[in-house]
Amino acid sequence: MTVLSLRGISKTFGAVAALTDIELDVAAGQVVAVVGDNGAGKSTLVKILSGVHPPDAGTITFGGNAVEIPTPAAAHRLGIATVFQDLALCENLNVIQNLFLGQEIRPLRLNDVAMETRSWELLRQLSAKIPSVRVPVAALSGGQRQTVAIARSLLGDPKVIILDEPTAALGVAQTAEVLNLVERLRENGLGVIMISHNMADVKAVADTVAVLRLGRNNGVFDVDQVSTEDIIAAITGATDNAVSRRVQKGARS
Amino acid sequence: MSTLTTDRQDERLQNRDGLRGVLADVLERARGGDLGVIPVVVGLVVIWTVLQILNPIFLSSANLVNLTLESAAVGIIALGIVCVLLVGEIDLSVGSVSGLSGAVLAVLFVGQGLPVWLAIAASVIMGAVVGWLYGQLFNRFGVPSFVITLAGLLAFLGLQLYVLGTKGSINLPFDSGLVNFAQLDFVPAWLSYTFAVVAAAWLFASGYLHARERRRAGLSAKGVPMLAARSVALLAVLAFVVWYLGQTRGVGWMFVFFVALVLVMHYLLSRTKWGRSVYAVGGNVEAARRAGINVRAVYTSVFVLCSTFAAVGGILAAARLAAANQSSGAGDVNLNAIAAAVIGGTSLFGGRGTAFGALLGIIVIQSISSGLTLLNLDSSIRFVVTGAVLLLAVVVDSVSRRSRTSHGRA
């Protein structure tokens, strides 16, 4: 069942057409990887979906209705949550305080018991390995911080969650943890849009791969039926590219 | 306990219960650079010991009573500084604003013959307006707060001189309630002890209810013996303070007022959404903004609070002196207030600190000041010593911040 679908989305910044006629479909319980080279329009797409920039043309259908997303708050209300690359956590606050930042329970006499209970529920839902929710976020590893950021986006019960480069800054083990987390989101029936540069991650967790090239759709693939080389070819626009040449060189020597 | 509570299930967690566990926790944190109040308390003990050796009058009841009264005005100003520092900004004009507030009070009350409450209200509102102005300048033009408030320092000093006119000094009548409040009003002994008992009982009751709520929710909680020990310790300390100060004049109402403000600010900062947002803005402005916090409103609110507290402090300082003059709020008031906040553990880098820090810090600052005055030392030396102590506090702040980063505690 398709939750979110984009048709004919275009966005220009001055003379630059950042996105032209983009189509994208996300179903519940599906992980869609959006890949593309630098400047392909991935970030612009994220910003349109999270309400930072409105599109110039095109329609966004969410849960069967045509919608507009003029502000981040509107995206939040619809049920589209975004985890930006820099996570936006307050290092001096602990996990509970970060999770509920801006949406504390009982503003005039904070209900920390309810917030702590709910925090554990959220983290358990993600099978997250965080030893204590009372430590400041500064004490957590990169993967654990990513977990906290994702858990925070789940607070509003979203239908679609957008992860912008969730594994870019992480080590091997932490990347695996985050990929487990993405699978858990899928099991929970969320639609996941994952922006990534890392083909191994894409192959590992995505169901479909949407390739952007120079602001246009350049193919949507089923992950099981496409090779990494084909994806790279779609990203770069040629079968003869820097990546394939390196592979050949490696094979010859 | 046979089943583990929700928050203690991770096998990596070291479970420490009881008094021993608390001590172990404190030690561990101190090693990681999370020093809390340890440096202040140690510093206070050292300062008191040295000053007592130099002059045996220092720790006498009479002098300590005086010390509490002297602390209240600047302490209240420091309370405002704590709020501003928490969001990572600074207000350098609190001295001038307090001086101006005293001058406005004196002119309205003595000069114009208005009722005292009206004069007080006007001064306090004046303070709030100044803070609001700072907030607007800061939010709209993005000027660094230290420049805005440096301009304010000079401008409001000028305004203070203008308001006072050619005479330059206005005496407040000794028989007014305000001067009485600051100089002669002391809490009766029985009421002081009642306050101490109520504080201890309240600490126990709130701790007990909170622990019960946590246990019901399946979370770990402090045990009754632990809570009782804490309350008894507080009661012992408070009762001793009341008894010792009671040897002479007792506990001044002005000091009680200051402590009450500290408690109110402590509640606001630690138990309300507003307090959370203050810490969040100090920790990471961008994150706070994305979390939907109205960052501008938070900045405006702390600037308003800080200037308002400065005005209140100015009123009490004028009442204590029974006069407002050209040097009210001048000299070291500014720096003493900022030093008190920093010595009390408020980080200059934002996001760390407590309201109680202002109380502890001002007692340190005021002890130095009072001790050096008792030694008949010139104010030149007092400035040098206070400056050195402030520097020491800032160094401790910076070093513990570095240590926290390496031990993973923001």
UniProtKB/TrEMBL annotation, chain A:
Gene3D superfamilies (UniProt xref): P-loop containing nucleotide triphosphate hydrolases
Source species: Nonomuraea phyllanthi
Molecular function per GO: ATP binding; ATP hydrolysis activity
Keyword Nucleotide-binding belongs to the record: yes
PROSITE patterns: ABC_TRANSPORTER_2
Keywords recorded for this protein, A-Z: ATP-binding, Nucleotide-binding
Name assigned to this protein: ATP-binding cassette domain-containing protein
Cross-referenced InterPro entries: AAA+_ATPase, ABC_carbohydrate_import_ATPase, ABC_transporter-like_ATP-bd, P-loop_NTPase
Segments traversing the membrane: none
Keyword Transport tagged: no
Domain of life per record: Bacteria
Automatic annotation (TrEMBL), chain B:
Subcellular location: Cell membrane
Name of the protein in its database record: Xylose transport system permease protein XylH
One annotated Gene Ontology cellular component of this protein: plasma membrane
Record function comment: Part of the binding-protein-dependent transport system for D-xylose. Probably responsible for the translocation of the substrate across the membrane.
Membrane topology: Multi-pass membrane protein
GO MF terms held by the record: transmembrane transporter activity
Pfam entry (one): BPD_transp_2
Keywords from the named record: Cell inner membrane, Cell membrane, Membrane, Sugar transport, Transmembrane, Transmembrane helix, Transport
